[in-house]
Amino acid sequence: MKKDDVFEFFRRLAELNPSPETELESGNTYQLLVAVVLSAQSTDVGVNKATRALFREVKTPAQMVALGEEGLKEHIKTIGLFNSKARNVIALSEILVRDFGGEVPADRDVLTTLPGVGRKTANVVMNSAFGAETFAVDTHIFRVGNRTGLAKGKTPLAVEKQLDRKVPQPFRVGAHHWLILHGRYICKARTPECWRCPVVDLCAYKPKVLEKPGKSKA
Hints:
Elements: H1 3-16, H2 29-38, H3 44-57, H4 61-76, H5 82-100, H6 108-111, H7 119-130, H8 139-148, H9 156-166, H10 175-185
Helix pairs in contact: 2-7, 3-4, 4-5, 8-10
């Protein structure tokens, strides 16, 4: 995708959604970190259902440590891999209390040293909580980047590096959200809804689905 096309790609997405935000619900940076850790291999909808009651009770790492692993499991048992996620959340909460005064560090490298926090999770927190120009490549962004030709790569890190190189201002902070939402609701895995895509003419995907399935051609 050419430089001018990349700018136009994000300009259109920004015009439709000027202030994109994560769909994970949270009340502060710590709750966001927990929500993102819980969201691995789970849907945002499922995580939000589990965390609403949890976050009414737990707002700080100290409160999470006091709740304990078994108490946390009761809240998140509807989420996939909840046993290991509970262990990680309690462990990272203990570290935040012990080493960071209960605050989430605004440093990607430091975040990735926490249990259960990989590069993608750290990028989400840096972007959503601290406004950093990071690109958290999940399955949606990986698909959109490769399918459209915006950022091709064989690994999430390769796609992330392409995005970091190509995405221009003033779209760098919002790009992560626009791409996730685009992949989640329009550029879907099985059948991309090209007939309602705002950037269809900029996309390199060849077998475009330009008519809604089931629509009569009469």
